[in-house]
Specification:
single chain, about 120 residues, 4-stranded mixed beta sheet, 3-stranded antiparallel beta sheet, 3 helices
């Protein structure tokens, strides 16, 4: 089973920048949050839930979207300092967590869906 993880440019890039730079070069600014001294990457079963989560939690002027996590990338992230939290619905958590961005280099060029 594949999962989707959120990305955001924090308002610093537009869609063509994402496609030209990030997607073609294999790196994506992944969204994670900090909670109780942990760094957590939210994961979702589909891109629609991921995009709705982003709309509820980030400013409207930030370009956001979902990227499919391949098994190789999931294994690589499992070995990092980040934890995964599975969300089966797009709940709002921005009132009690701090969001941040992690630049991740994918093992292959990732498929992106913007919100």
């Amino acid at each position: 089973m594949s999962f989707f993880i959120p990305f955001t440019t924090e308002g610093q890039m537009n869609v063509s920048d994402i496609k030209k730079e990030c997607q073609s070069e294999g790196w994506i600014p992944l969204l994670y949050y900090e909670f109780e001294d942990k760094k957590v990457i939210p994961i979702f079963k589909n891109s629609d839930i991921c995009r709705k989560f982003l709309k509820r939690n980030l400013p409207k002027d930030h370009l956001t979207g979902a990227v499919e996590l391949t098994p190789d990338d999931q294994k690589q992230l499992d070995e990092s300092e980040y934890e995964f939290k599975y969300f089966d619905h797009p709940r709002k958590i921005s009132d009690w967590v701090k969001f941040n961005v992690y630049i991740y280099n994918f093992t292959t060029n990732p498929e992106l869906t913007t919100a």
